[in-house]
Amino acid sequence: MKTFLAGAITMASLIVGLLFLRFFRKSRDRLFAIFAVAFWVLSLHWIGLAIAQPNDETRHYFYLFRLAAFLLILWAIIDKNRASRKSP
């Protein structure tokens, strides 16, 4: 059951990444491109957990993918706010 749910979450993350890529192509806003990459990194996290099925001692290494995705999202938000301050 865990593998099935991890697969569903992986698929959802990939689709959300594709939606953000579509928004990026329409608007050319870098925020959407970074969000797309962040969601694809989250899908790598779930793929890794589903395939490796690590025990409790090594599970935290897979959360580095999640940390990277959230840092990308944070960077995208900060970058968007800085860009809006520069241009009047």
For this entry, give a set of tags:
single chain, about 90 residues, mainly alpha, about 0% strand, elongated
Could you describe the 3D structure shown?
This protein has one domain. The protein has helices spanning 2-27, 30-52, 63-86. The protein is built from 3 helices and no strands. 18% of the residues are buried. Helix content is 83%, strand content 0%. It is elongated. With 88 residues, it is mostly helical.
What is the oligomer described by this structure? Answer: single chain
Q: Proportion of β residues?
A: under 5%
The span between the termini is: 52 Å
| Large-scale geometry | elongated
Give the number of helices.
Answer: 3
How much helicity do the residues have?
A: over 70%
Q: In this structure, how is the largest beta sheet organized?
A: none
Mean pLDDT: 89
Show unreliable segments.
none
Number of strands: 0
**Which secondary-structure class do the elements indicate?**
mainly alpha
- Domains, number: 1
Order of helices and strands: HHH
Radius of gyration: 15 Å
Task: Indicate the topology.
Elements: H1 2-27, H2 30-52, H3 63-86
In short:
With 88 residues, the chain is mostly helical. It has 3 helices and no strands. The chain has helices at 2-27, 30-52, 63-86.
